[in-house]
Amino acid sequence: MEFDFTDAGLIQADRILRISTALGTDVLLAEKMDVREEINGLFEIIVDVKSKRTDVKPEELVGTLVDLSLEIAYGQRRPWNGLVTGLKEGPPVSRGLRSYSLTIRPQLWLLSQRSDCRIFMDMTALQIVETLLSEHGIKAAVTGGVVTPPAPVHYSVQWNETDLAYLTRRLEADGLFYWFEHEEGQHTLHVASHPFGYTKGPETEVRFAAGSTDRNHISQFSRHYAFTPGKRAGGDWNFEKPQGPQGATTPSLVSLPKNAEYELFHYPSKAMDQTSNDQASKLRMQAVEADHEKIEGSSTVRTLAAGRRFKPYEVAHADHQHEEYVVTAIVHEIVDSSYETGDGKLDYANSFIALPSRLPATPHRHTANPRIDGSQVAIVAGPAGEEIHPDEYGRIKVWFPWQRNRAKKDGSDTCWIRVMQSWAGGGFGAQVIPRIGMEVMVTYLEGDPDRPVVTGIVPNPSTKVPYKLPDNKTRTTLKTNTHKGDGFNELRFEDEASKEEVYIHAQKDMNLEILNDRRKRVERDQHEHIVRDKVAFVGGDHEEVIHGNVSIAVGSNKLTDYLMSRTSTIFGKLGSLMSDMRIPDPFNFAKGNYQIFIEKNKSEIVHGGSSEVVGVAKSTIVGNLMQTTVGKKKSLIVRGRYDADIGKVHNINVGEQFNIRVGKHIVISMSKEGDIVIKGKRIKFDADKIDEN
């Protein structure tokens, strides 16, 4: 049969390898195709085509879905579907055609074209898959092979990494493996955690015939065994359980000589409780065990695909029994030369790696965890109407500038973050809680974006320092602000030379508790101003030594204020003057004076005895009325002279008897009966007139 080299002969209807694109039927003709598929990786198809159009524009193909298919039997075809991510223009060829090369990948590859900084709260890896695929407009994944859903992660950060890197990292952490299944018009992501999730192809049993050239058989099949460690261990620190680090060790199911002596340990495991540590250690061990036994082979079986099960059998050696395997990676090489030769011959071969299907293809954690080196700024967050929003550990919530318009700024979309203090002990130490709106510095344990720690607070124009700078550069202060109020508490130090000062301000109460002694020394003056009351309770003795004067004014008016100031001044100046003139000051006017000024009343009650000793002189001035009441007996002893100056009337009322004694004798005696006795050696009357009644 003579081959038709006209355009009418350049069609794909009867071709073994076909391609369908947005350009239309038979515009592109597939000649060569290399396909790489694997579990835990993206497939990649590179197909060489001849185009009937020599001016194909990139926007006509790049970013569009294409279908490819390979004939596996009469009337049966194996499909591939993918996204054109690259177009390479080749030279013109014979018959007015131009060669092109297309690179085709899954739609999931689009996730590698978007990077972000983002926080995910309380989401599982499967929810991450669902969310990101939905955001990119990709068909939902098949997750029936996930036997036990992974636990949600409370706080997980995508940090300057692509959506694909973040998704892959989350899948690896939870031991989830994935691959793709193809059908005409679409391809689907499969995610599994158990061998139960592997799929079956059209041919579940495949003939193994070494060296054979027949179609659809395995020509090479070799087992490879690797030494693997006998233990996998990991641990992490949970501050809520400070007794020691959390950890777990999982022994391998693979038993080899001395492999039990070898352990792979990883820290931190990013697991905060024993259950999570056990699970993490188990998954890491499964990944190691999957490396122990692998199959490498080559075949012409066109139905082999990543994630599909197959079981080899041998016709020549029927007694050779093989277990079931799953393809973990495969490379297809396809050449269709029928457009040149017209004979319909196709060259096809593949090479593959397989794993016993009883084992899960648990991935290693190959995707690098992003690091944040150094510190970042953040703003303290909290509910509306609050100013301070900590938890029981003094942790706070923040929002980051890199959250862009996603940050709610009320703390509902972030985790509690520990705050570094200058000291922390068992119920003692320092406690400073950053307040909502403050700018804080955040660093990261191990550089891990998922493990932030607040290390300090920095001022900005919205949260300025307490005092204007540099005007007050010599001041060091700790000044707080009243919660939901306008007041403040402050401890301030002024270090300006000759103006040094320690200042304490209490907005309301100030309590000082000393369990033993307190000593206070003031080198110069002490001033104390109490607006209301002062109460002092002394359980034992009260002793005060005052070398100068004491002035006490009870009540306040202009007179007492004036007298208090003037008398202190007068005594002081008088003492200084006498000292300057070198005149003896026997009364020490400048020191030792005690003044009491009482605006209104004074009341003194002594339940026992009261005594008063005045060394020199005592003067009592009563402006109006003075009354002294003695219950039983009153004695007045004057060692020298006793003078009484009465301006008008002097009345003496005696209940029974009134005696006047001079020396040892009673001179005048009066009784209540009216008797008057005047007794003396000589009685002399000197008067202008004496009346007798």
UniProtKB/TrEMBL annotation:
Location(s) in or outside the cell: Secreted
Positions of the Gp5/Type VI secretion system Vgr C-terminal trimerisation domain: 476-569
Superkingdom: Bacteria
Family that this chain belongs to: Belongs to the VgrG protein family.
Protein name: Type VI secretion system secreted protein VgrG
This protein's record includes keyword Membrane: no
Domain Gp5/Type VI secretion system Vgr protein OB-fold, first and last residues per copy: 389-457
Keywords: Secreted
A Pfam family it matches: Phage_base_V
InterPro entries: Gp5/Vgr_OB, Gp5_Vgr_C, T6SS_RhsGE_Vgr_subset, T6SS_Vgr_RhsGE, T6SS_VgrG/RHS, Vgr_OB-fold_dom_sf
Organism expressing this protein natively: Phyllobacterium myrsinacearum
GO CC aspect terms: extracellular region
